[in-house]
Design brief:
The complex is a heterodimer of chains A (113) and B (113). Chain A is mainly β. Chain A has no helices and eleven strands. In chain A, strands 2, 4, 5, 9, 10 and 11 form a six-stranded mixed β-sheet that branches. In chain A, strands 1-3-8-7-6 form a five-stranded antiparallel β-sheet, with no helix packed on it. In chain A, strand 4 and strand 5 form a beta hairpin. Chain A starts with a strand and ends with a strand. Chain B contains no helices and eleven strands. The radius of gyration of chain B is 13 Å and the shape is globular. The model of chain B has no long low-confidence stretch (mean pLDDT 91). The chains are: A mainly beta (113), B mainly beta (113). At the A-B interface, strand 4, strand 5 and strand 9 of A face strand 5, strand 9 and strand 10 of B.
């Protein structure tokens, strides 16, 4: 089946630093999504991408849909303590129906004040 | 007001027991899902229902039986619980053609002892 490789697995940064994480797939996707999961909660959608090359921002977050359709990245600028959590990429492949998403392994982000 | 609500939040039970987790969504979505998140935080889809019809069954043991009495509810019944069933189970819903509307519940932490 499809696999998503998300990296890095974890990051320890100082408040104010920028963060970058990415996902690569063994096959093409037609949708890329980025989620954040806080402790004890379900993942919450941050950004959705639908076209190759698309670059979308949501506040301090920016994500891009790779030109090859096999990768995506998420950047967080000027990190703050509340950015702590697990970030997941997810993708939907062509011909997949009923919202079936494949998730990456997650990036655990720790921000030191 | 909660969009996707699942109960209970925590469930501790002995091996061999049968238990159920309930999920309800008030978003008017036509598709609902169950995901399992293991101890490494990996999210994997288990089931998907579209308008009460089973669409996805991802090689889940038949001890797990989803039931959808209507399109706003998707319950998960687990028979003969095993230690390896311990995980966090997330319910989610979406409108099939709009993956950006994928909304997760806050999870049920199942511990089998």
């Amino acid at each position: 089946g499809q696999q998503l490789n998300q990296s890095p697995q974890s990051m320890f940064i100082q408040e104010g630093e920028d963060v970058s994480m990415n996902c690569t797939s063994s096959s093409i996707f037609n949708t890329w999504l980025w989620y954040k999961q806080d402790p004890g909660e379900g993942p919450v959608l941050l950004i959705a991408l639908y076209k190759a090359g698309e670059l979308t921002s949501n506040g301090r977050l920016t994500a891009q849909f790779g030109i090859t359709r096999k990768d995506s990245f998420l950047n967080i600028s000027a990190s703050i303590p509340s950015d702590v959590g697990i970030y997941f990429c997810a993708g939907r492949s062509p011909g997949t129906s009923y919202g079936k998403l494949t998730f990456g392994q997650g990036t655990i982000l720790t921000v030191h004040p | 007001d909660t969009a996707v609500s699942q109960t209970p939040k925590y469930l501790v039970t002995q091996m061999g027991n049968d238990k159920s987790i309930k999920c309800e969504q008030n978003l008017g979505h036509d598709t609902m899902y169950w995901y399992k998140q293991d101890s490494k935080k990996f999210l994997k889809i288990m089931f998907s229902y579209n308008n009460k019809e089973l669409i996805i069954n991802e090689t889940v043991p038949n001890r797990f039986s989803p039931k959808s009495p209507d399109k706003a509810h998707l319950n998960l019944h687990i028979n003969s619980l095993e230690l390896g069933d311990s995980a966090v189970y997330f319910c989610a819903s979406s409108q099939e053609q709009l993956p950006s509307g994928y909304t997760f519940g806050s999870g049920t932490r199942l511990t089998v002892v």
